[in-house]
Design brief:
Elements (H helix, E strand, L loop, with lengths): L9 E7 L7 E7 L3 E8 L5 E7 L5 H9 L8 E7 L2 H7 L6 E6 L5 H4 L24 E4 L2 E2 L5 E3 L3 H14 L4 E5 L8 H13 L5 E3 H4 L5 H31 L6 E4 L5 E3 H6 L10 H14 L4 E6 L4 E7 L2 E2 L1 E2 L2 E2 L5 E2 L3 E2 L2 E3 L5 E5 L5 E7 L18 H7 L17 H15 L3 H23 L11 E5 L3 H12 L3 E3 L7 H6 L4 E7 L10 H21 L18 E3 L9 E3 L2 H6 L5
Parallel strand pairs: 2-5, 5-12, 6-7, 6-10, 10-11, 14-24, 24-25
Antiparallel strand pairs: 1-26, 2-3, 3-4, 8-9, 12-13, 14-15, 15-16, 15-21, 17-20, 18-19, 22-23, 27-28
Keywords: Signal
GO molecular function, one term: 5-oxoprolinase (ATP-hydrolyzing) activity
GO biological process, one term: glutathione metabolic process
């Protein structure tokens, strides 16, 4: 038998502020179509914004190209980067070849998964393949019991045999280690990692205790495999970026935005890159939280429509929502704490096409930055949402990208005509239909974060941003039943602006098996103290040195602890609504 169901684990969140003594603080949002930049001069308090076309073949090229905006790159002392490199590696299946090492008898966990499926009644649905091949799954004799006792010692010779098999295979680029009940006692995982590092010094290794020390072996396996899958890709890109920063005279620390809305150093990102899963979209939610505070509008639904996709989330009572139930795609659950964001393939670059039944469709395929929509004049011939908006007069072709990029109206009309002809419609009618279909897709996304969660759209205001968000805001408000809206200054740079508002944030969590009737206060306090120590140690390792005063731990307030910027020496314990609900019915 595998691991039994258990209660929710204890989760701790530590955040603290970074003091920036630099001339320029720069937020960079690397999107699929554009790379956005926001700079803040800490001396003059001036804010500047600009964007350039992304370079999908080499995202770092776009980052460095945009930083050429500065006359003296040495003036840049702090960069906060949001990127989708980890997500894209999974979605495009361009990650590493992974070896999965687990407890004897459990190598099929990544394939058995759970009993759910994406489309219960779709007989044509094909289940996506896991990130690891079965022939690359290895078993080792060892067994930790649910109470943490050792039932079967680790077979160290067996681990060395696996290392030999990996060497002989020749294709393995990363290793994921996940032993049963390792979240209780990680000794076997850590020892196995030591052996594999000795035997395979050039192959990165991820262990589940470092990535996700929580119950549920399948979700822990999936998250650890995903971490190993993206690690070589992320490590290579970050190493290349650091070299380019150094060569350009950008000498101080750069940080990467995490999925939980915090920031981490480049070194930390290389250790656990899965924390970057939804790095880019979090910026808009962070900035949205700032807007909620300034405007007094406590309930916001955010809509970030860029060139490739649309991201939606909610801010309730002035606070962002978090989740640990996230799937990059079906069958790839990632259970690290992150801001709850829903993404659909509807952006300004989403391509309009006709399906086999003769119906007009929009997305999820995007024209991206190259060639981009037809109106970009870069060789694109298929119509996109931006082409439709241009033909309908919703975009000024002379002032696109602040006048730095002229749009080709004739190219847009020609592309739209290629779809309009088979439909028996004019280009203008087709353009309107494309916009309406894109709107319908986005209304569905808004409803998924509102109505499906029991939230009334009438209680919310729509915060629309991204390069294309404000173009569609009025229609979306009307169709979704949202009574009011907010359009921020520089909406096309809003996510990058959110990056300069981030704090360092470390999430540490651990599952502890106990029931409410047998609640062990001393045990819970011991675990919480260990979590706090682990979180603070990680903050210190990343350069955030804080002295934390000792606080008594109340028995029922162990869901989250938060160290706030501006009040760095106080710990505040918070209950999460979902944690409280998760205990309902527990004997």
């Amino acid at each position: 038998m595998g691991e039994p169901p258990g209660p929710r684990g204890l989760a701790l969140v530590l955040t603290c502020g970074r003091v920036v003594l630099a001339d320029y603080l720069v937020g960079i949002d690397v999107g699929g179509t554009f790379t956005d930049f926001v700079s803040y001069n800490s001396k003059t308090r001036a804010i500047d914004v600009w964007k350039i076309l992304s370079t999908p073949h080499d995202p770092n090229e776009g980052v460095l190209g945009g930083l050429g905006h500065f006359e003296a790159p040495s003036d840049i002392r702090n960069i906060r980067l949001g990127t989708t490199v980890a997500t894209n590696a999974i979605l495009e299946r361009k990650g590493a070849t992974v070896a999965y090492v687990t407890t004897e008898g459990f190598r099929d966990i990544p394939f058995i998964q759970r009993g759910n499926r994406r489309s219960h009644y779709d007989i044509t649905w094909i289940k996506p393949k896991p990130l690891v091949k079965r022939r690359h799954c290895y078993e080792v004799s060892e067994r930790i019991m649910a109470d943490g006792t050792v039932h079967v010692p680790l077979d160290e010779d067996g681990v060395r045999t696996i290392a030999q098999q990996i060497r002989e295979d020749g294709s393995i680029e990363a290793v994921a280690l996940n032993f049963l009940f390792s979240y209780v006692t990680p000794d076997h995982e850590r020892r196995a990692k030591e052996i594999l590092e000795e035997e395979l010094p050039d192959i990165p290794i991820s262990i589940s205790y470092d990535v996700l020390p929580k119950w549920k072996e399948y979700e822990r396996a999936s998250t650890t495999i995903a971490d190993a899958y993206v690690k070589p890709v992320v490590n290579s890109q970050i190493a290349n970026l650091r070299e380019r920063f150094k060569a350009s005279g950008i000498t101080d620390q750069a940080v990467v935005i995490k999925s939980n809305g915090g920031e981490m150093t480049l070194e930390a990102a290389q250790r656990t890159p899965i924390q970057m899963t939804v790095s880019g979209p979090t910026g808009g939610v962070i900035a949205g939280k700032h807007v909620a505070k300034l405007s007094g509008i406590s309930h916001l639904v955010t809509l970030d429509m860029g060139g490739t996709s649309t991201d939606t989330s909610t801010i309730v009572g002035g606070k962002e929502n978090f989740t640990t139930d996230y799937e990059v795609e079906f069958g790839v659950p990632i259970q690290i704490p992150m801001i709850d964001i829903r993404t659909i393939g509807a952006g300004g670059g989403s391509i309009a096409w006709i399906d086999k039944g003769g119906m007009l469709r929009v997305g999820p395929e995007s024209a991206g930055a190259n060639p981009g929509p037809a109106c970009y004049g870069s060789g694109g011939e298929r119509p996109a949402v931006t082409d439709a908006n241009l033909l309908l007069g919703r975009i000024n072709p002379e002032n696109f990208l602040g006048g730095e990029m002229a749009l080709d109206m004739q190219a847009a009309e020609k592309a739209l005509a290629s779809v309009a002809g088979p439909l028996g419609r004019t280009a203008e009618e087709t353009a309107l239909a494309i916009v309406q279909i894109a709107n319908n897709n986005m209304v569905g996304a808004l409803r998924s974060v509102l109505i499906e969660r029991g939230l009334d759209p009438r209680d919310f205001a729509l915060l629309a941003f991204g390069g294309a968000g404000p173009l569609h805001a009025a229609d979306l408000m009307n169709d979704a039943g949202i009574p009011s809206g907010v359009i921020p200054n520089y909406p096309g740079h809003f996510s990058a602006f959110g990056f300069i508002l981030t704090d360092a944030r470390v999430d540490v969590q651990r599952t502890v098996q106990m029931t409410s009737k047998r609640f062990d206060q001393d045990r819970a306090s011991e675990v919480m103290a260990a979590l706090i120590e682990t979180g603070i140690a990680e903050l210190k390792a990343q350069g955030y040195v804080k002295n934390i005063e000792d606080l008594p731990l109340a028995g029922d307030a162990l869901s989250r602890a938060e160290l706030r910027a501006g009040d760095p020496d106080r710990l505040r314990f918070l209950h999460r609504r979902d944690d409280a609900q998760g205990l309902a019915g527990v004997p």
